[in-house]
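Example 415, ligand zinc ion.
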Amino acid sequence: MMILGKYSLGTGDRFAHQGKAQLKASLLAKEAGIEITPVWNKSHREHKTIKSGPADVRKEADNTVKELGWAEAYFVDADHINMNNVDEFIPYSDFFTLDVADYIGNPPEKADADDFVKRYRIFLGELTIPGIGQPFHITEEFLKELANNFLVAIKEAEKIYNHIEKVKGKGNFITEVSMDEVETPQTPAELFFILAEIAAKGIPAQTIAPKFTGRFNKGVDYVGDIKQFTKEFEEDILVIRQVVKEFGLPENLKLSVHSGSDKFSIYEPMNRLIKKHNTGLHIKTAGTTWLEEAIGLAESEGKGLSIAKKIYAKALDRFEELTAPYASVIDINYKTLPSPDEVNKWTGSKFANTLRHNQENPDYNPEIRQLIHCGYKVAAELGNEFTDALVEFEPVIEKNVTQNLFERHILPVFR
Ligand SMILES: [Zn+2]
């Protein structure tokens, strides 16, 4: 059976130019004694925006691995797929993130809901999870609610999983189930029954991406109650440990944190808890690499800087269009964004400092960072002008991409 390593890092690479720079971060980790399994992830949405396809990601991953002599495991993730688009990914991916968030809240058939409640009735009353001080109080009402919210979604995950298994064969790919793109977080008690049901449906999930408490805005730090997050993160770990024992899910089942890049203020508790409980973690960091490309261009001054400025001006001009698809995962106050005229006066280092995620730098501006995060479509539309610049200014960009992943992500999360 294909097994995902304990610590794994999803690295999206929107324009397929930073494979080497990203893999170098995993190589640096290896030198530092941290084993990271790199996973190339790209969603259907990103492919549509960039006009690339799943075959391109596979090619980039294989070529990069060969070129750098990476001898360890690596995977290619069909990120956030569903029945409508999974077929495009099947020949090229060996990791599938089954996104069933859209099905959460769809009420199931009454017979299915009754059957669910009947099967989990044995847990009514106090449910004690080893390591969690307070038992969960499970009522019939809670089970009914759970069935109404999640049963259809889990059934859909089963359908997608079986569809992939039929083509690729059992054990020949990694399965993740994602429920993160919803408004309401799942509690640890809900996670217990969701995972029990995932096991009952025969889905050998190795990672689960719940919606955590707080906001996971794109490319910027966590916003929310860190104490509450820490409590629930630890309880989720303990719930996973218990469901693996009780329902026979894969031993290496672990949490997956989506929009996991740049969440600096929760890296310390995450790091402490995965070490404390000797458990794994998957973290997805897709868009942070594209931001480093923009930073590298700016830092290169001259032509690179003018392309970075052009991207800013166009992104500002198309604010509504570019930010709409990300509305639930960004917080930008349009009024505070500087005009293109003002930005055009900036030096490369001023632009880079504004964009780079260093909260100590007085120039750092999370609003601009989030806008540029959503603006990769503009870069895609620049076509060769942009991708030629990625090649021309590769050394500066590469340094930024590698350092960002290694120093700001891998070290604080996994060391
Ligand atoms: Zn996600």
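Summary: The radius of gyration is 22 Å.
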